[in-house]
Amino acid sequence: MTRMGRILRILADAFSARMLSVPIIVGGQRGVVLLSLSLILFSGCNSLASRFMARAVEQAGEPIRPVERIVASPIRASVGLSVLWAGHATVLIQIHDKVIITDPVFTRTVGLLAKRSVAPGLDPSSLTRLDAILISHIHFDHFSYGSLDQLPRSARLFVPSGGIEYTPEYGFAETRPAKSWQPFEMDGLRITPVPVKHFGGRYGFDAGWNSEPTWTGYVIEYKGTTVFFAGDTGYDPLIFMEIGKRFRIDVALIPIAPVEPRDFMRNVHTDPADALQLFNDLGARLMIPIHYATFFQGLEPTPAHAQTLLEQLLDQRGLHERVKILGIGEQLIIKEEAR
Questions:
Q1: What whole-number distance in Å separates Cα of residue 283 and Cα of residue 243?
Q2: Torsion angle, CA of 107/75/328/51, rounded to 10 degrees?
Q3: I need a surface site. Which of 81, 101, 264, 297 has the fewest CB within 10 A?
Q4: In order of start, what are the domains of the chain with their CATH numbers?
């Protein structure tokens, strides 16, 4: 990348952070100006953008609900496989003695428009150790600079290869570019980046800057257990059937939102029906839905809209035993430690 390109990226992040630090006043001139300016710069002025802006202004004054549950000590002394959903795409995975977190986001807001509807279901100060941090892509709601700064530096940070130049220096044990089908192994823990269907850039105007993808999924393998993390993705049968052929997946973490407006979202975001088809293509044993009910996103009528649609499908198809819906902050013990 050229020096000018780096400068532009630094300025863009500094500018966006500055905007995020100013509280939005619903109905107030400052909030409207900030939201309008952000949309002009990063989204363009069209009818859909204006609908997103109106929704953001409407939701800016909504209180952030407290989380109903939080695990004080989420890293267990003994477990075969546990999954804790902290909200959105933030998932704490423990496989025996290995601890991995995906897309950590603990901030009140992300990007320029999305506000959290419920508090995080995980206190980052409770993470006494981490082996790996997996970033699926560089959008604000998945690649949160302030959230990464709260995590143990002993971890290895994995970032899509095209997103490395967006990555500040945190002092983690290692920062690794994630390239599809190129696995990394450390002490028996094998992490393989895999293709998914999403889109690039961080600020909107930089989508075409990267020669390599800025998005990925991951397959995590350790001691006979395999977990798939989709990050953010649209549905593509060829991609997911290929992943299913290469791995025997125990648990699949699959996004189910945003749903609306569907014509706009479908290419890059799975809805509940897409997610169940993806789950089937993978041939996974268990699915845990993610990426919903956390931020005000898209044009959903309520943050729980996607969950409601999913529950209807599970009722129709009799899949409640294979699809486990977690509450934010809930930790599911899937395998006990063998004795």
A1: 9
A2: 30
A3: 264
A4: 3-59 (no CATH), 81-335 (3.60.15.10)
Whether 25 has a pLDDT exceeding 50, the answer reads no
* DSSP three-state, residue 175: strand
Residue 229 contacts by C-beta under 8 Å, 6 or more apart in sequence?
91, 93, 102, 134, 136, 217, 218, 219, 220, 253
Name the E strands within 52-188: 81-87, 90-95, 98-102, 109-110, 114-115, 132-134, 156-160, 174-178, 184-186
Q: Are 235 and 277 in contact (CB under 8 A)?
A: yes
Residue 193: pLDDT over 70: yes
- What are the helix and strand counts (H, E) for the chain? 8, 15
Contact 131, 156 (CB under 8 A): yes
Q: Tell me the per-residue pLDDT of 60-97, one tens digit each, with 9 for 90 and over.
A: 677 899 999 999 999 999 999 999 999 999 999 999 99
Residue 279's beta-bridge partner residues? none
Q: What are the helix (H) ranges across the chain?
A: 3-20, 29-42, 47-59, 145-148, 237-246, 262-265, 272-282, 305-317
